[in-house]
Each structure stands twice: as structure tokens, then as C-alpha cells.
Amino acid sequence: MTAPKGGFYSAEDADSRDPDHSEHVSEGAYYTWRAREISALLGEEMATLVLKRFGIRDGGNVDADPHGEFHGRNILFVEKSFADLTDGSDRGAADVRAIVASARKRLFDHRTSRPRPHLDDKIITSWNGLMIGACARGYQIIGDARYLNAATRSAEFVLTRLYDEKQGRLKRRYRDEDAKVDAYLDDYMFFIHGLLDLYEASFEVHWLKRAMTLMETAIRLFWDEPKGGFFDTSGEDPSILVRLKEQYDGAEPSGNSAAVQNLLRLSSMTSRREWREYGEKTIRSLAALLDQAPTSMPLLLSCIRMLSGETKQILIAGEKGDKRVDQFLRHVRNSYFPHRIVMLVSKTSRPDLSSIHPFLGTLSTTDGNATAYVCTNNVCQLPTTDPDVFAQQLTGSSGPSAE
Questions:
Q1: CATH number, domain 312-402, options 3.40.30, 2.20.70, 1.10.10, 3.20.20
Q2: In whole angstroms, what separates CA 131 from the centre of its chain?
Q3: What is the architecture of the domain spanning 123-310?
Q4: Which of 19, 116, 191, 273 has the most crowded CB, counting CB atoms within 10 A?
């Protein structure tokens, strides 16, 4: 689903030609497997491990199949751990891992010979924004640099091919070397969301600065000054007779909910108090619907929790790659803090961050050691160079503050 130049494609068809019956098209044909097919490809010994590892059954492993499309077919998933596979076996864990890795390679090579589903190769700004955020957060949690690289390449793709630098405007879709359609609210907000996550993964300040610029543009294009909240479109296209506001968080968050989340995050990361006010006004504009059907807007409900003062501002003075900085970040990323921002003030980022928020320019290391500051609503606990004390401050089990 990744384009050669870095953007993410839109979709792939569910249906493709059945490898067993090429005249038929069926759902999941490309990605599902029959137990006998795997046994024939791998041989008995290797297949025995693979069938256990990936939950493969003769009758298929898709229990919820109301139309009978997956009878005898299996969706591979990890059902047994390597410890389970070695239990009672003469083989060690290293041998089992090697066998399963070899089997996966064989299965992958065989699958490539099947007729592929049709690819919808449009590259859409909003969906790329969501993927950038997912990959950036995946990197923060797992530490796999491939996720950070994927997020970075997608962001660079959007800014290179879907952004008009002269106008400062995004386009919505890219295909066949051509970007078309002025971007909608969700394109801006999902992409800003991705850029903020990418900043917190890489601490490259230019991602944060770009998010700030795009937020200013989005407010200018979509903000409803009389009533609050954001329209889906800019109002510049005469063929769109009515400017609507998406309010519900469904398969995707609404542009308004994403806008509030971005505004609150940016307000916590910068000295721009007005962005918090835009977020508050948007929530008030949706208050009636929130009262009637709160569960239809889960992301917006989460944003209300952010407004209640639960957002942690985790600020670290130090250099990327420093051992102590890595320890601080490990504590943050191994813990669940749904409402937090993380910023790194290094020698190279200090000038830019000082212009974004003067307070950041005052943060310094202690005797040359990386120093962490844990704050809530701009009220900070005492700075620390000790990762264990920092961990206690994160969980609220440690104490005094310095305003």
C-alpha cells in the first residue's frame, strides 16, 4: 500500500480471483489459505509448526462467516507463541523461529503468484495524515525505525506533491503525477495530527512548525466565525451550494473533533492561547449534540478530558541519542498517558522552540546532564536528572512543584 515515492495508496479490493478456481472472484482469495495448500507447500514437519503458530484449521478459522465465503479458508494470525511451540519438543526456540521464518518466506513467495486484488492508487491527504500518525506512534512504542521512516516519507510526499508552497494550501488527492481538488477540513486536520505525532517521534522542529502554519491556514479557510466550529469546505467552490459541518466520529474522526484535539495539543506546545480558545468554542458549538448523543463523538469527549487539566507537558532538555534522554523517553513511551505532549529542547532546536514558546528557551540541562520537567497546565514539578524520580513524577507519586 506504499507508493514508491512514499505516499500511502487508498485501498485494495476485497475480491480477487480464486487461485483454485480462476473463473471465480471471491473475497479474501489473495490473503487466505487452505490447510492442505500449506501442507503441500511446506512439507509435513514445517507445516505442523506453521499450522499451530497461525491457528490454521482444516475447516477454516473464520467463525463469523454468514455468507459462507470463507469455508475451508484461514486468515493467518499468531495463535501460539514460540514458547508454546517448543513445549514438549526436542527443538529449541531458535530452531523453531528459524523454521517459521523460512516458512513465511515460502508462503509469501507463493502468494505473489496469485492474481492480486485491484489497487486504488489514489493518494489522499487525510488518510496519509492518519497513517503518518499511526506509524509515528508505532515507532515511539516499538522502536522500529521502519515505522518512523514510513511516516517521514509520507509526510515529505504530501508536502512535496500535495502542497502548494506559494499559496500555502493543500490538495486532497494525487494520482498519475497530478494533484487535484482543494483539500477539505479533514485533510488539514488529519495531516496536522500526523505532523504532531511525527514531531514527538523525531523531535524535528520543522514538523511542528509546519503543523502550526497549516493550522493557521485551516482556521482562515474553514472557521465559522458567527457560530464556532469548522465547515468541511472553504466555501470557494461555487458548485458546493451548502457548507456542511461533519460532527460525528465514525469510521474516521470528524474534522471538528480532530481540529479540537490538534488545537489543544498545539496550545500546550506553544504560547498560542487563542488556539485553546478556538478549541473551546468548537466544543461549545457542538454542545447540544454532545448532550443528546455523547457516544457519537468519542474523540471530542476525549478532548473535553484534555480541557479538564489532565494534559501532561513532558519537557526534556538534552540531546537526541543521549543515554539519559533515551531513558526518560522510555518511561514516557512505555506508560499510558492519553493526553500528553513531549518536547525535546536540544542545542539545535532551542532557537526555534524559543520562538514557539519562550518558556522552552529557559529550560536547561543540569551540570551537563539531560534534565526532565513534568508539567500540568504549565505548572511544573521540580526538574530532575534522575530517570527513576522522573518515572515517579509521571505517575503523580512524587512531589513538590516549581511554578
A1: 3.40.30
A2: 5
A3: Alpha/alpha barrel (1.50)
A4: 191
